[in-house]
Amino acid sequence: MDASIKSVFPAPLSSTALPRPTREEAEAAVRTLIAWAGDDPNREGLLETPSRVAKAYGELFAGYGQDAKEILSKTFREVGGYDDIVFVRDIPFYAHCEHHMVPFYGKAHIAYLPHDGVVGLSKLARLVEVFARRLQTQETMTAQIIDAINENLNPRGAAVMLEAEHMCMTMRGVRAHDVKTITHRFTGVFAEDRIEQDRFFVMINRR
């Protein structure tokens, strides 16, 4: 395996995944796609494109090499007895649709009610990045974020909401502009108590 691509793409997440191609094979695939699109991969402006795309993929899909458990591993218990909602709003994210491999982007809103301590606020933004930088659906990403919070922080309840615009709807197909898709999921107290759900939505809309 090419060492440069191995450094940004770790072992496959699933044991059933195909063997990781080499950097050279990835660049050859990009050249094939350029030719299939109708352009000449050997013209001056496209000569370095396969290398740039392979490098960009290392950044765009870096989430495959990141571990949510590690990111949420450090918690703080000395919080002066605070046990109310922890809420982080408007976390920006950029992801790629697994169906068309074009971007969808938007904001994530995360809340939880602490039980065994709190996590650094920046860690919640990093958690979103872990799952955004993979081939995704918005529904799956919503579930992955809240599942990671529940598994690693053991809160009394958690709430996650994503709102995003999907370029697979904007650039192609129906070509509907400015359409937002909203997904959310509640667990624990948030799932059981409508008042807590309402409080979550009020905090999202408070400006």
Automatic annotation (TrEMBL):
Name of the protein in question: GTP cyclohydrolase 1
Organism: Devosia soli
The GTP cyclohydrolase I domain, residue ranges: 27-204
Gene3D superfamilies: 1.10.286.10, 3.30.1130.10
Species lineage: Bacteria, Pseudomonadati, Pseudomonadota, Alphaproteobacteria, Hyphomicrobiales
Keyword Transferase in annotation: no
Domain of life: Bacteria
Pathway(s) per entry: Cofactor biosynthesis; 7,8-dihydroneopterin triphosphate biosynthesis; 7,8-dihydroneopterin triphosphate from GTP: step 1/1
Coiled-coil regions listed in the entry: none
EC number: 3.5.4.16
Residues annotated to bind Zn(2+): 97, 100, 168
